[in-house]
Amino acid sequence: MPTPASTAPTPGLGGAARSRPPAPGRRARRRRAGGHLLAYALVAPAALFYAFFVLRPIVASAQYSFYDWNGVTTATWAGFDNYVAVLSEPKLVGAILNAFELILYFSIVPVGIALFAANLIRSIAASRLAAAARTVLFIPQVIPLVAAGIIWSWQLSSDGLVNQVLRAAGLDAVTRAWLGDFDTALPAVGVIGAWVQTGLCLVLILAGMTRIDASLYEAARIDGAGPVREFFSITLPGVRQEIAVCVTVTVISALASFDIIYVATQGGPGDSTLVPGLQIFYLAFFEREIGTASAFSIVLMALVIAVVLPLQRLLRGSES
Amino acid sequence: MSRIRKTRRRALAVSGVAFSAAVALAACAPPGSDGADDASTRLTGDPTCGEDAVVLDAYFETGFPLPGALAEEFTRQYPNVTFDIREDQFAVITQNAPRTLQDSPPDLMRLPQMSELASDGLLLDLDPYAEAFGWDAWPASQLEQMRVDEDGSRGDGPLYAMGLGYSMTGVFYNKELAAQIGMTEPPATLAELDGYLAAARDAGITPVSQFNGGATGGLAFPLQALMASYGDTAAVNDWIYQKPGADIDTPENLAAAEHLAGWIDEGYFADDVNSIDYAQMMSRFIDGESLFMFNGDWESGNLDAQMPGGAGFFLMPPIEAGGAIGAMSAPATYGIAATAEHAECAAFFLNWAATDEEARTIEVETGGSHPMGPADGVMPEVAEGSVTAATLAAGAAISEADGAMDFIANATGAIYAQSWTPNLQKLVAGEQTPAGLLESVQADYESQVGD
Amino acid sequence: MIVSRREKIIGRVILVVLMLVTVLPFASIFVTALHEPGSYPRGIEWPEAPHWENFALAFQSADMFRLLGSSVLIELGVVPAAVLLATLAGFGLGHLRPPGARALFVVFILGLTLPFEGIITPLYFQIRDLGILNTRWAIILPLIGLFMPFAVIWMRANFATIPKELSEAARVDGATTWHLFWRIHIPLSVPAISSLAILLFLWTWNQFLLAIVLVADPAQRTMAGALGAFQGRYGTDIPLLCAGSLLILTPTLIVFLVFQRKFVSALLQGSLKG
């Protein structure tokens, strides 16, 4: 996985502001002071690694973004030119829009499928078949995304499995090189992403559903509630937290996608599957426009935060 | 309540400290102020590989056996020299070139477009070696494409690369399929070629399976060939060499692009051109699944081996019979990183490849291309009727007509992957017009050359 | 629970369909890997003469032993160090809670959603200036830093949930902080630590961007980076590429199947703590 955040269920932000223990006495306070020092010493190594390999590059990115630099010769001040380029050049703006379209395939589709399927599977969640499925459906999560990209590039090619299945179903007319067609390349990349993410979402949501108190359903059935009402009034609220995790993780993986597209389409055909991550890579290491690449990096980081923060609020509500 | 506020204020303060510490960690001077040293070559005596064991660090292109075969032969002749070869596809080499040359400098590297690499000082100036080895006595046109001046404009200035043979492109055809549609000899005019394309399509034969997928827009081959039919090769070269004021968006080139768009509309290309890669194109052509293939003589040896007597070659025909011909012809460029450890030995290898009899034979037989070197250099015997014979003859015709052009993909480092390829793919999909294609490429060109 | 027979059947059918969709692509590349090198097989189609030697060929071409060795070295460099640093910091922030702990926590959270592409450009120059470009350190050191936000927050959450009463009782008994940490908190944190180790192992093994940007030699990369290099080199030979991809995937799959319960529960725990 490209980023820990892309698959990691985000641990909650809650639970931080707990009340402190009652005011300690004098001796205790001295011990406290020593304890504080110790605490800082314990945090320091982690904080230093983090500062040097994450915060420092972020700051450097911000710095580079105001320069015109090819990585070799001396840089010249460029003001906001790089940001203007990122937000006005059709190609770069297009990359951002593509990333947002990918949210549909990487996030909404898998979460939707997972919810639908989990609801139907719920009743047999304890069966042996379900246990086997949990393992099998998790495989796409553990293989490198590059492998998923390579495997699916082949399935989606003119002679691949997808077209073979379509032909067998008599749908010869729709067969095509899915990754080589302007209209279908981005959705086809989306299929790869959906394949990777659905298993994770399904297993998470299913686990959530099995924790819902069974008596709630019995009560609802006695009240004469249909499956639909049951789903919306009991199931959905019951797995809200799991949905929040799935949506957050998959949305980040869409906005920050790189691996799959790097191997499957390289951004093509045309610029139809170009995404910010790939464009940053091209700008920085191929076109050697470090300034523009850095400005794009800053914009990407800002975008991710701008999307994820409201999502957290929306989905988690004010649970503590 | 107040405690919460206090905590928050302290939180802000600490995050402020952490942040400013990080700022302090990052240098505040503009980046890149310590430029790489300018390694100038000083030669004492004749360059050699010496007697000690040398391992040349080489970076070659996958799928092309020539450099590897030459390296093997070289080691046979000079046992103290061995090669550590890393291989990638050309598109990957293109992406990696600046980084590799700067930070893990190879002794010998297959180069993509090189003007920026040269003007940024990443490549070794080979002029001292050219002088020492007497390369300046060769036909000047051989080395012209590899000279780059300090503005990155090519054709003039110091020599930054050498060819392992020079290649030429045109049209390969499958003789069996050609006979089926009544094509008994290569077309003499563009109209005749149009006729054969139509005849093949009508006969249910895929006329052309050209690679145009991924990062490699192979429709640039027919496009540039058409440019030579419609216009003057010198103007195209000026553009490629970044001569001031050069423009790709000319009426002649527009006519060429429109002709190509016409072929697309007529269905002369396979439906899935936008996803065909180079190897797939080769496989389809060799398996007899397509009649024509726009490609270069580096495949001649391969085609002679895989479909003996089954393939032919012709240059893109002119508009009128006997009109001016042109072809994309360029050395397969290999350079030496400015800070390479074994530059002298690498230069010796390049000289050997152009002058050693065994090496020249390998270049023709394995590479299918014409060796570099003196005009009267030894040429191996080639079987009559083979594709290799056809491409060598076409090469002679092109040099007589002075119709050689460099590749339009070589105008700038990024023009191929970032401009020609996406625009040609859009042209196939009907999302770009011929005029829009040229306009868009020209705009990208100007922004890249302007830097 | 009231469950109708029909519901159960529908549930089973859906599970089977989902499993098929997951597994078929693997079956497809397996069959493709048995075709003649350099050919373009059509869909799933058993070859007339299976070329089992493709796997041997790919094994050699990819230099599998060196790749495995390299990935293992990188794992050894990253996972123990990252888990240790995160455990210490998590204890500091989650249990000891010195003044400013909350703020430090916020600083770590900032890094939680960070896309690696956002810092890859300056990181390249930083690694170059450190003189460790093209070595395994170029992957190991930044990865430790990049894993810190998740790992520290994970461990902090773990220590924060350990009942206060336990620690207080130990304090009353005169336990030092060290004792408290080593004798009480660590034993209780074993599940969290092992889950974290599994997650970090997986993310390191599959790390692609850092590998392709910072290390040129595939034999010094992670498995995912090596796979990228394999595709860059043999990507045009489909059967060989499929054989190589399967080989490169095999160690991951074995580790996953052996530890599958742990893997799944590691990710589930993440959501529980949310």
Describe the structure.
The complex is a heterotrimer of chains A (320), B (451) and C (274). With 320 residues, chain A is an all-alpha fold. Chain A has helices spanning 4-7, 26-64, 81-88, 90-121, 128-142, 145-155, 161-168, 185-210, 214-222, 227-238, 240-255, 259-264, 276-285, 290-316; strands at 67-68, 76-77. Chain A is globular and about 75 Å long. By secondary structure, chain B is of the alpha/beta class. Chain B has 2 domains: 54-166 and 331-365, Periplasmic binding protein-like II (D-Maltodextrin-Binding Protein, domain 2, 3-Layer(aba) Sandwich), CATH 3.40.190; 167-329 and 393-450, D-Maltodextrin-Binding Protein, domain 2. Chain B is built from 18 helices and 11 strands. In chain B, strands 1, 2, 3, 6, 7, 8, 9, 10 and 11 form a 9-stranded mixed beta sheet that branches. In chain B, a hairpin with a 5-residue loop joins strand 4 (147-148) and strand 5. Mean pLDDT of chain B is 85; it is low at 1-9, 23-27 and 34-40. In chain C, helix 1 (5-33) packs across helix 11 (238-258) and helix 6 packs across helix 8. The model of chain C has no long low-confidence stretch (mean pLDDT 87). At the A-C interface, helix 1, helix 2, helix 4, helix 5 and helix 6 of A face helix 1, helix 3, helix 4, helix 5 and helix 6 of C. Chain C: Residues 68-259 form the ABC transmembrane type-1 domain. Chain C: The chain crosses the membrane at residues 12-34, 67-91, 103-125, 137-159, 180-205, 238-259. Chain C: Belongs to the binding-protein-dependent transport system permease family. Chain C: One of its GO terms (biological process) is transmembrane transport.
